[in-house]
Amino acid sequence: MSVPFLDLGAAVGEVRAELDAAWTRVMDRGWFIAGAELDAFEAEYAAFCGAEHAIGVANGLDALSLVLRAWEIGPGDEVIVPGHTFIATWLAVSYVGATPVPVEIDPATANLDPSALEAAITKRTRAVMPVHLYGQLADMTAIAAIARAHGLRILEDAAQAHGATRGGQPAGALGDAAGWSFYPGKNLGAYGDGGAVTTNDAELARRLRALRNYGSERKYVHDLRGVNSRLDELQAALLRVRLAHLPAWNARRSRIAERYLGALAGAPGLTLPTVAAGSSPSWHLFVVRHAERDALHTALAERGVQTLMHYPTPPHHNGAYAEEFAGVSLPLSEAFAAECLSLPIGPQLGDDAVAEVVAAVRAACAQLAG
Ligand SMILES: *Cc1c(COP(=O)(O)O)cnc(C)c1O
After folding, report:
1. Does the Cβ of 171 fall within 6 Å of ligand 1?
2. Mean predicted confidence (pLDDT) in 296-303
3. Handedness of CA 181, 288, 87, 331 (dihedral sign)
4. Residue 131 Cβ contacting ligand 1 at under 6 Å
5. For the chain, what percent of residues have pLDDT higher than 70?
6. Residues spanned by the domain of 267
7. Is residue 363 scored above 80 in pLDDT?
8. Whether residue 180 sits in one domain with residue 261
9. Is residue 267 part of a domain?
C-alpha cells in the first residue's frame, strides 16, 4: 500500500452529491459574481470565525495585501513577519511596497516568538503579521500586548488555521483583521482559488469591499484605486458545502494527529510537534523534525509514504529576498526549514494508511539511527 500526501479527489467523492447540487443551483440562477452565494458564504464564514464581517476575495495573498493597502501601509513602512512561514506572508508586505522585517520563531511551535517581537519594532513599524503556521494559533495574547503598547495593527495570517482555537477563541478575530486562503489543499479549500478577510472593524470591511471591486461601492463611482479580486459565486457555493463539513473533518485530522503523537513518541532522532497549553490546532499539517530530513524523506518514499516540506527554504534565503536580506541571520528559522518534514494528514486518510505511515516512520528512523 502506498500513502499519498493528500488525496483531494477523496474529499470530492465524500460530498459529491452536495457539490453537484450547489453547482446546479448556481448554473440555474445564472448569476456568477457578487450574488446570493457570496453573501451567504460571507455570513456563514464570519459566524464560523466569531467575526462580525467576512469579505471574500480571489486568494489568500490578496486577502493579506488588501488589508495592508486598506490600512495605507506602503513604501517606507515596516511590517513584522515570522522568519519561517510560507513566502506569501512576506510577499503580501512587499506587494504594497512596505518592508518585511523578520523575527525568529519559537522552535517548539514554529510560530512567531513573542519574546523576539519587541526588539524588531522601530519608528517605521506599522503592523505585525503572526502566522498560525500548520494550523496552530500563535500566542496572540502575548503578541497583542506588545503590539498594543506600540500602536501596531495586527493582521493574522490564518491561511492554515480554519477552525483552530486557543483558549477557546477561534482564529479570525484575534487581531484587527485576518487573511484566509481557500486554496484547494487548505482545511477549507475551494475548487480553484479563493480567499477572505475577517474583521470586527466595519470601516475596514467597507474599504475592502470597495478595494476588491475596482474601488467602487456604487456602480460607476470609484473613490479608491481598487483591484479585481473577487470570490465568485461558484466557489462560494462549493465552499458553503465544505464549510458545513469542516468541524467533522477537522476532528478527523485531530484524531490522526493524536495517533501520530502517541505512536511516534520515542522514535529515534524524531521531534514531534508541540501543542501549546489551551491550543486546539486545525492540524492543516503534521510537521516533524529530523536532523537527517532529506534521508528520512527518501527512506519514507522507498516505503511508499509521500512526505513534503513546509518549507525547505526560509523566505530570506529565497531568490526573491536573498540579496536584500544577505546580512540577516535567523538561526532558529533556518534550522527549522532544514529539518522539517510533513507527514500525510487529511480527513480522508484512513486508519490503515495512518498505521502504514506510523510503521514506515518508525522503521525509517530506526534505520537512520542505525
Ligand atoms: C496558502 C497560504 C497563503 C496564500 O494563500 P493563496 O490562496 O495561495 O494565495 C498565505 N499564507 C500562508 C501561511 C499560506 O499557507
Report:
1. no
2. 98
3. positive
4. yes
5. 100
6. 246-369
7. yes
8. no
9. yes
The residues, any chain, with a CB within 8 Å of residue 347's CB and separated by 6 or more, are 11, 248, 249, 250, 252, 253
- The reply to whether the predicted model has a pTM over 0.85 is yes
Asked whether 187 lines ligand 1 (CB < 6 A), one says no
- Domain assignment present for 88: yes
- In this structure, what CATH number is given to the domain that contains residue 81? 3.40.640.10
Residues 44-98 have pLDDT tens digits of 999 999 999 999 999 999 999 999 999 999 999 999 999 999 999 999 999 999 9
User: Whose CA is closest to atom 14 on ligand 1?
Assistant: 159
Give the pLDDT of residue 221.
93
Q: Which residues of 87-115 are buried (b: 16+ CB within 10 A; e: fewer)?
A: bbbbbbbbbbebbbbbbbbbbebbbbbbe
Q: Are 282 and 252 in contact (CB under 8 A)?
A: no
* For ligand 1, mutation pick of 181, 187, 285 (most atoms within 8 Å of CB): 181
Pocket flag, ligand 1, residue 125 (CB < 6 Å): no
| Total domain count, the chain | 2
- With respect to residue 211, please indicate whether it lies within any of the assigned structural domains: yes
Tell whether ligand 1 has an atom less than 6 A from the beta carbon of residue 157. Answer: yes
Dihedral sign of CA atoms 346, 349, 351, 352 in order = negative
* 2 belongs to a structural domain: no
CATH code of the domain containing 325: 3.90.1150.10
**Beta-carbon contacts of residue 12 (< 8 Å; ≥ 6 apart):** 19, 191
Q: Do 68 and 138 share a domain, yes or no?
A: yes
Query: How far, in Å, is the centroid of ligand 1 from the Cα of 184?
Result: 11
Ligand 1 neighbourhood includes 49 CB (under 6 angstroms): no
Q: Choose one of 57, 134, 182, 183 to mutate for the ligand 1 pocket test, by most ligand atoms within 8 angstroms of C-beta.
A: 183
79 and 152 co-located in one domain: yes
- Write the single-letter amino acid at 141: T
**Does the beta carbon of 181 sit less than 6 angstroms from any atom of ligand 1?**
yes
Q: For residues 349 and 98, what is the distance between their CA atoms, to the nearest angstrom?
A: 41
